[in-house]
Please model this.
Amino acid sequence: MDWQFFFEPTVQLVLATALLAILIVIGIYVLMRVRAEAREDPTSPSELLSQFEELRARGMLQEEEFKKIKDNLSKKLRDQLKPSSEAE
Model:
């Protein structure tokens, strides 16, 4: 086989374009899968709070950081529960 064929500029351009197209298709596929999984499994604020409590217990979060996170998540949790409690 004549390998010189692959060193011609036109062939290299076609191969590079095909490789780029394949990488774009793979990227789009991965992005769609990640988005679909993110929509399927939203983590609730209470679950997030318990995960951050665990990080604080391990010493990976400082108390001030945890307090800010806790305040934000508590507000989100109250906002989620507010419409359901008004409906009763």
About this structure: Residues 34 and 40 are 10 Å apart (CA to CA). The chain has a mean pLDDT of 86. The two ends are 78 Å apart (CA to CA).
